[in-house]
Design goal:
By secondary structure, the chain is of the alpha/beta class. The chain has 2 domains: 124 residues, Aldehyde Oxidoreductase, domain 3, CATH 3.90.1170.20; 150 residues, TIM Barrel. 41% of the residues lie in helices and 19% in strands. The chain is built from 10 helices and 12 strands. A 6-stranded parallel beta sheet has the order 6-11-10-9-8-7. Strand 8, helix 7 and strand 9 form a beta-alpha-beta unit. Helix 2 runs antiparallel to helix 3, helix 3 crosses helix 4 and helix 5 packs across helix 6. It is elongated and about 70 Å long.
Amino acid sequence: MNELFVRNLILNFLSEDLGISGDWSSLPLKGKRLKAEVIAKEDFILCGSPFFNKVFELLGGAPKFRWNFKEGDKVSKGSVVCSLECDGSSLLSGERTALNLLQRLSGVATNTREFVELLRGSSIKLLDTRKTTPGLRPLEKYATRVGGALNHRWGLFDAVMLKDNHLKAYGGVKEAVLKVKSALPITAKLEVEVESFEELEELLEVVNLVDLVMLDNWELEKVPEAVKLIREKSSFVKVELSGGVDKESLPFIKELPIDFVSTSKLITSAKWVDVSLEVLC
C-alpha cells in the first residue's frame, strides 16, 4: 500500500480527534516517557499493526514497539499483543485512533478467517466486495487479505462490472456488453452479473467478450446447470457466485463447480475485537 497514501489517511483520522487546538488533557505529559501494553480481551486474528505504529510515529515522541504477534497470527485472550514506549503526550493523544484501527481491522480479518476456514478443501477462491466503510476501503481490503481472502476490484477504475442497473440502462445484457467492450482498453477485464437463466442465455451470445460471469442471488441447486451452459460456450470464462452468501451456506457452496465466491459480509458483518491499551508507568 502506498506509504504516502497511508500517511495522509491517518493524518486525517488524527485531525478528526485532535481538531485545531490539540489534546489539552495530555499536553502537560510532553517530554515524559511512558510504557504501555496492548492487551487482548478475546481471541482474534491480528491485523492493523503497521497502521497502529504509524499513528504514534506521525505524532512524534520517538515511539518504540515490540509486537509479540505478526499480522495474521491468532491471538489468545489475555495475551500482551504489543508493548510500547512513547512520549506521554503522543501516547495518550494517539491511543484512541490507534486502537480504533487495530480493533476494526482485526475484526475484519477474524471474520474473514472464519469464512476461509469454511471453504477449506475447496479450490474456490473467496473474494471481498466494494461494500466498505467510506474512507477505510484500502485498510478494510487489506484486512480481508490478512484474513485469507482475495480482493475483488478496488473501485470503478480497475475493472468493469455490469450490474443489474447497467443492464437495464443499456437496454439488455448483449447490448451492454457490446457497447462497453467497444470502449474498454485492451487490458481491462469485464465481468457481467446475471440473475436468471433468461439473462444468462442472452449473455451466452457474447460470452467470449467477457472475462467473468457473476451468478447473483441464484438458488444453489441451479448453479451447476448455469455453469455447464457457460463452460459449453467458453472454457476460459471464470464463474463467480454472489448474493446471500453467509457462513451457513458456505458448506454447500464449496461443492459447486465455480471459481470464486464473493460476499460483502467479510466486512459488513465483522465486529470490532476487544483490546485495551494499559499504561504501566
